Design the sequence.
């Protein structure tokens, strides 16, 4: 189902194998967080996250524990796209939350809701809407016909 594509949309993955290029108009480093503001663009592999602001919260060892993006949040990786007013990712629990006008797309398939929560460890997702109904659109792939051999 369409929620499975959320797994591929986790920009802030725990694996540190690929470097992240962060760009913004301003950067502020504090003891427990890094704040990117203004035209933020973060690139990791083929995935690109853009937002007005991204805050990465650090633990005592200066490793990321939580990331928040706000304002025109958009993530694109090939045919996969996610949009929201705000997004959060918890590195410990591996939970991704999209808030406000949340939409996840994979080619023609999509899910829309006020809030979409993806629990990576459980491979489970919830879409919640209070101001409008949850909407999904799913196009089933056509399988090739098997020819009868006589």
Sequence:
């Amino acid at each position: 189902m369409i929620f499975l594509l959320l797994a591929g949309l986790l920009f802030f993955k725990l694996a540190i194998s690929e470097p992240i290029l962060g760009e913004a108009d301003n950067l502020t480093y504090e003891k427990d967080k890094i704040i990117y503001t203004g035209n933020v663009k973060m690139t990791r592999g083929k995935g690109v996250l853009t937002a007005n602001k991204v805050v990465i919260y650090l633990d005592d060892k200066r490793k990321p524990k939580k990331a928040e993006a706000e304002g025109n949040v958009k993530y694109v990786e090939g045919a996969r796209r996610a949009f929201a007013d705000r997004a959060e990712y918890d590195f410990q629990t591996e939970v991704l939350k999209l808030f406000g006008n949340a939409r996840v797309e994979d080619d023609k398939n999509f899910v829309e809701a006020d809030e979409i929560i993806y629990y990576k460890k459980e491979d489970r997702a919830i879409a919640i809407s209070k101001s409008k109904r949850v909407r999904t659109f799913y196009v089933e792939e056509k399988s090739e016909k098997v020819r009868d051999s006589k």
